[in-house]
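Appendix B. Raw example, untouched.
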Amino acid sequence: MDDISIPKIKKEVIVAFKDGGVIKKHQLTIFLNKLSETRAGEQTIIELLDSDKQFVPSFITNGKDTFTIINLESVIYVQELEKIEGDIKEDEKILSVQFITGEKIKVVAYEDLPEYRARTVDFLNGDHSFLTFVKDCKKIYINKNKINKVEIV
């Protein structure tokens, strides 16, 4: 029987895991579907992260592309390598996110919420497992189960 191959899009990202008591970052290649299951176009990283899949295949980009299967529940965050188009608004709230490791990063919430649900706490209490922020003009998807606290700076 021939293997059935589903066309995929390779996407280079930085993935942060808890290793001991600190965050370790790895450059990985993940695979997105050419067609999204929920909308027109290609699957997005947030769709993959919020899917019903707990384990996803990837390659660790370490010069020889080591195949690995990562557990999304153990991921602290995933950051895209490409900068987003457009500028971040100056009036956006800067948030300091502290992870369960104690480490902190400063980010800006990326999702536009309806006016009646636009508070930071509404954003954090949304239905998604991963939340979309911007750090250094790049999208970063943070596993909300790995957040210890969030402060508005």
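End of appendix B.
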